[in-house]
Amino acid sequence: MAPKLRIISRLIERLEKVKNLGQIGGLYGVQNQDTVYLVGFHLRPDLSESKSEENEDLKNVTEYDFSDLNYPTEIDLYGIVWFCENNAEPGKEDKIKQHANDVFVTDNPVYIKVIPLQPLKTLVLLNDSFEEIPYVEISLDEFHDVFTYVRLIGSIPLVCDADTDAITQHFDNLRKKVSKGDSIIYKASTQKSKDHFIFAQTNHNNKSLTVNDLIQAQVGRKPTGKDHMLPLTIQFLLRISKDKLDKEPMNPAPSMTIHRGNVRAFDTRLNIDSLAVIPRAKKCSDIYIQLAACLSTRIKHLKKLLVKDQRSTLVSHHFFPPSIDHFITLLYFNRTSDAELVPYRELIHKRLCLSMDKPQFRRGNAHTFNSTLISPTSNDTILRDVHIGLNKSGVNGSLSLVRGHYAYYHYRQQGENDDGWGCAYRSLQTLYSWFLLEGFTSKPVPSIREIQETLVYIQDKPPKFLGSKDWIGSTEVSFVLDTLLGVTCRILSVQANETLDCRVPELCSHFETHGTPVMIGGGVLAHTILGVDYDKEQDVAKFLVLDPHYTGEENLQVIQNKGWCGWKPANFWKKGTFYNMCLPMKKSCV
Amino acid sequence: MKVFAGKNVYNYLKDLAGNKMTIPGLLLGQSTKDKSYIIHAVRNLDSTEALAEELTQNIEEFSCTLIDHVQQVTRMLPGGTFVLGLFFICKDNMLASTSHVKSIQSLVKKIKVNLKEDESKYFNTILQYNFSNDSTTCVLIDNLSKDSMLSVEFKKTNWYHIQCFFDFNDLLSLYFPEEVSLKVQSDLVLKRVKTILDESLFSLNGAFSDHSVSVKSLAGISSRPHCPSVILMNIHLPCEFQENNNKDIYIEKSFVTKIICSGILGSNVYLNEEATVDDAILAVKNDILRSLSSRIEMHLDSLLEGEVNFQEMRTVHEPPRRILINLPDVQVQLSDYLFPGESLSELSEALESLRELLDIDINPTTIEKNFEGPSDINEENAALPSTCTNPSEANGVDSNSFKIPYKKILIVSLLIVLVAIVYQFLQSGHSSSESIPDLKKTADINTTENSSMHETSAGTNTSR
After folding, report:
1. Cα B370 from Cα B358, distance rounded (Å)
2. Which CA distances in Å does B162 have to A92, A253, B18, B224, B369?
3. CB–CB of A172/A164 below 8 Å?
4. Within this chain, do residues B96 and B48 fall inside the same structural domain, yes or no?
C-alpha cells in the first residue's frame, strides 16, 4: 500500500530554491504508522552525474561526514530528489530506482522531481515502478504536534591504555552493552517523586503511558504549542551486575590481575548528547529500541572520531537553522576553532543548499534547549529575545525585525552600578550579543571595563577614561564593534529639526538585509531599536525599542508589561535633539 | 523492642542447658527498628566454663576469645545479618547481680570497640537461658538491668531471599603512578566498589520499587519462574552528564601499575518479614563489601611473607571464592570461602572449623559449591602469547607472568620436578637442551624456599 505523504513547508520552499539542475539529493524523514513525514534533504553529489567544479569539491568529503549522524535518530533516508530541467529524460527513472536501493527503512521509497516553475512531482515506488501520489504540505507546528524531540544525555567514563586498540575495544564493549537487552536502561526524570525507567522488556510499570504524558510529567504541566521545541530529556544507567538469566553455567569468582611496567593511560568521559524524533503518542514502553539506536549511533561516531584524535574532547552541537527547520547535530573537537572549521562548514552549507552569507553551524549558533534564560557569556542569566510574545504595534504595516537572537543587557547587570551613565555600553552589549548568538564570534560579550579598555587601546580615549563613568555615543559603539569583531557600522543621523520617521526606509532596509539590532543615541539617552512596523500607505511607523535603563530583575513579564521592551512612536525621542544611529552590518561568511 | 527466634534456636539453647553449666555464645540475626530476629545461636567453644563463670576475673581474656569468634562468624554472615549479641546459659538470673551486670557491660564494651561501625551498632542484645527454671529472657545492652527484661518469642520467621551478581568486568582498570603494596591496591579496589555502590540505583525483579515497599510484596513477582522464591537484584550505575563545553577533560599520564578486575561476585542475602526495599539494598551493599573485604583479607593472609614478587610483569591474584552453607532448620545460607585449587573433598579441615565456629554438623553434599565458579584466568593465561611454551625459556628471565601460590605449593613444585624429569627423560636422546639443569634448579628453589612460581606451560596453567 502506498504510504501517505506529508512534507513540511520549509522543505518545499528549499527544494524549489535549488538552482543547480541535474543534481540528486537524499530526502530525509520519519514515519508514523502509514504516514511518511519528509523534513529535510541534502545534495548527494556522489549520486549525481554532472561534473561541475562544485560537485568535485563536494565529492572530496566522504558520505560518512554527512551520514545520518547529522539528523536526529529516526530521521532516515526515505527517498531521492532529482532537480531536473524538464520532465523527460529517458533512462533516468531506472537510475533513480537504483539510488532508491539505498533506502533501507521502507519498501516504498519516495521520489520527488523538481522542475523549475512547476509544482513538485511526488512519486513512490510501488511494485517496482514509480507511481505519482499526492502529498500534504504541513507546517512545522503541525509536525511538532505529532512528533517530539528526545534528547539523550549522559556521560560514560573511559579509562584505558592510551592506544588505539584499547580504545577500540572499549568502544566495542560499550556498543555490545547497548545492544544487549537491559544492560542499559533509560530514565526520564519527572517533577514527581518517582522517575520513569524504560527497560528493554516491558516491566510492570504503567503500560499505557505515552511519550507526551512523560513530557508532561517532566515539565510539570500539559505541553502546549509553545513547548514544541522542549525535548524529552532522557538519561541512562549502566547495569554493573549480571542478570542471572543471561549467566553462563558458572560465574567465575572475582580475581585481579596486576600488570607492572610503564603504561600510558587516559582518563576521560564520553559525553553523550544525542537527539531522536519520536511520535508523541508512542507508548513509553515501546521506545527502548529508538533510545538504544540513538545511543549506539552516537557511540559509533564518537569512536570513529576519537580513534583519530584522543586528546581533545568532542562536544555535540545541535543546530536548528531557521532556514531548514530541522535539527542537524555536529560533533566538534573542543580544540578545533570555528575558523579551522570553515571548509567543513562551507561543505555543509553547500550540501544543504544554504546561503553562504551567514554562519549557521558555528558553536554560537547551537540551539539551547533549556530556556531563554541561558547566558552564553557568564554565569549570570540574561534574557534573550525579549520582544517575542509582545502585543502588536497597532500599526498593521509591514514588519521589519531583528533577524536572529540577541540578549537583553541593561543597567545593574554583572554587579555594575552603572545607573545614569551605562546605557550606551548596555546597548553596545546587546548589539555585540547578536554577533555572538548568531555565531559570528565565539568571544564573549565584553564587560563595561573591557569596552573602555578597547577605546583606550585604539587611542580614541585617554587612559584616564578607564574606570570612569564617562558616556559613550554611537561612534564609540561602532569603533568597539569594528575593533573587537571587525564589523563595519553605518552611522545614520537624525537632525534636530527632523523626527525618526524620516529614517524609516533606511531602518527597514537595514533589518531586511542585515537584521542586526540598532543603537540610537542622542541627548542623554541611548536605546536599542529591534524593528520597525511601517504602514506605507498611511505613512505611519512604530519602532520596537529595547530600553537599557531598566534596573529590575530578569523578569520577562515586567519587562514586557512595563514597556521596557515595546513599540514606541517616533515622538518617543524628543524633538529638537540631534540623534545618531549605529547600524552594524553583518559580514558574509559561514 | 520485640525479640523473635526460631524453634531451632530454642532447641539449641535447651540442649546446651542440659549440660547444667554456664555457657556463653553468640546470637546471629537481623534487627529492625523495633524487632530482632535471631536466626542462629552458637556457643563459644573456646571459653572454658571456669572463664565464663568467673566472668569478673578474666574479662580481658574472655573478650579476646569472643571478639575473635564474632569476627570470624561475621565474615560468614550474609549482608544485613549481624552478630546481635551474646547469650548465656546460666544457673540464675545473671542480671540480678550488680557485679555481673558491670562485667557484662565492660565485656560488651571491649567487644564493640573491636567491631566495625555497623557491626557494633547491631551488637545490642543479651539473652540468658536460665537452666534452673528453663526460662529465656532478653535485655538490651543499652539498658542492662533486671527490670528491663524482654521476653523472647519462639516462632517461625519467613526469610526472603535476594541474590545479586556484581560484575567486576565492568569495573574500570585502576592505574597507579607509583609502586604501592598489594594491600593498598586491594583497598583501592574496595573503595572503588563502595563508591560505585553508593552512586548506583537498584532494581528488584526488573523494576524500581519505592524504597518503602516491603520485600514481602515483591517476593510473589519473580523473573525467575524456576526459582520463584529468589528475588533478583540488579545494580545500575547512573551516567550523569557533565557539562564541560569549555574545557578538555582528557588526562593522559604515565603509570607503573595497572589493575584489571574480572569475575562476578555473587551476593546472597536474606531479609526478614518486615524488611523494605531500602533494607534489601542496604543488605546487598553490605554483603558485597563484606564479602569482598573478607576475600581480600583471606587472600592477603594466605600469601606467605616475601612471597609477592613485585618484579613480575603480570601477577594474577585469585582470592578465595564464595560457597554457601545451609543452616539446619532455617532457610538461610551462610558463606564460606574456598581457595583456588582447594576441592570440597579436601574440605574436612574447613568443615571442622565450621563446626567449631557455628556448632553445627554440615553434610558436605548440602554445600552449594558452585555459587561462584573458579576464576577463568587460567585459560586466559594459556592463550596469552607471552606465556612460555618452551621449557628452555622457562627459567625465568623472559617469563612475565606470575601466580601467587597457596597451600599446595609443595604438590605443585613436585609436579614441576616431575615434568622436568619427564622432559629430561624425553630429551635424553637429544643433546640440545642445556636448559634442563636450570629448570631443575628453579623447581628446587620452589620446593625449598616456598617461593613464587613462574608461570610456565609445565605447571601453572592447570594447577598450583
Report:
1. 22
2. 66, 18, 37, 12, 18
3. no
4. yes
Tell me the count of A-B CB pairs closer than 8 A.
238
CB contact under 8 A, A237 and B375: no
Residue A311, chain B, CB below 8 Å: the answer is yes
Give the nearest chain B residue to A332 (CA atoms).
B245
Say yes or no to pLDDT of B67 above 50: yes
Distance from the Cα of A213 to chain B's closest Cα (Å) equals 19
Q: Say what the pLDDT of residue B249 is.
A: 62
| The pLDDT value given to residue B346 | 65
pLDDT above 70 for A427: yes
Nearest-CA distance A153 → chain B (Å):
6
Is the Cβ of A310 closer than 8 Å to some Cβ of chain B?
yes
CB contact under 8 A, B238 and A256: no
Q: List, for residues A165-207, the tens digit of each pLDDT value.
A: 888 888 998 888 888 877 899 999 888 778 889 888 765 556 7
Q: Is A264 on the interface with B (CB under 8 A)?
A: yes
**How far apart are the CA of A32 and the nearest CA of chain B, in angstroms?**
29
Same domain, B10 and B145: yes
Same domain, B80 and B125: yes
**Which of A87-96, A412-421, B297-306 is the most confident on average?**
A412-421
Q: Which of A156, A183, A259, A378 to mutate: most B Cβ within 10 Å?
A: A259
My answer on whether B312 and B175 are in the same domain is yes
CB contact burial A351-370 (16+ within 10 A = b; e otherwise): bbbbeeebbbbbbbbbbebe
Q: What is the rounded distance in angstroms from the CA atom of residue A545 to the CA atom of residue B327?
A: 83
Last residue of a domain, one of B95, B119, B154: B154
The rounded distance, in Å, linking the Cα atoms of B419 and B412 is 10
pLDDT exceeds 50 at position B227: no
Cell triple for B243: 557539562
In one-letter notation, the amino acid at residue B278 is D
- Spell out the long-range contacts of B136-144 with Cβ–Cβ below 8 A and sequence spacing 24 or more: B136/B10, B136/B13, B137/B93, B138/B3, B139/B95, B140/B1, B141/B85, B141/B105, B141/B108, B144/B95, B144/B101, B144/B104, B144/B105
> pTM of the entire structure?
0.80
Which domains does chain A carry? 4-143 (3.40.140.10), 145-241+265-311 (no CATH), 398-584 (3.90.70.130)
pLDDT digits (tens, 9 = 90+) for A302-322: 888 888 777 778 888 999 998
Domain match, B382 and B370 both:
no
Is B461 inside a domain boundary?
Answer: no
CA distance B128 to chain A (A): 41
Q: What is the DSSP letter of B207?
A: B
Our count of domains for chain B comes to 4
B69 and B212 belong to one structural domain = no
ipTM for the whole complex: 0.80
Q: Are residues B53 and B173 in the same domain?
A: no
> Domain ends where: B340, B358, B375?
B375
Put simply, the answer to whether A253 touches B189 (Cβ < 8 Å) is no
Residue of B171, B208, B266 lying closest to A197 (CB–CB): B208
Question: What average pLDDT does the segment A276-280 reach?
Answer: 96
Do B71 and B175 belong to one domain? Answer: no
Nearest Cα residue in chain B from A315: B245
* A502 in reach of chain B (CB within 8 A): no
Give catalytic residues of A, as residue numbers.
423, 547, 549
Residues 173-232 (A) with a CB less than 8 A from some CB of B: 182, 185, 187, 194-195, 197, 199, 201, 203-205
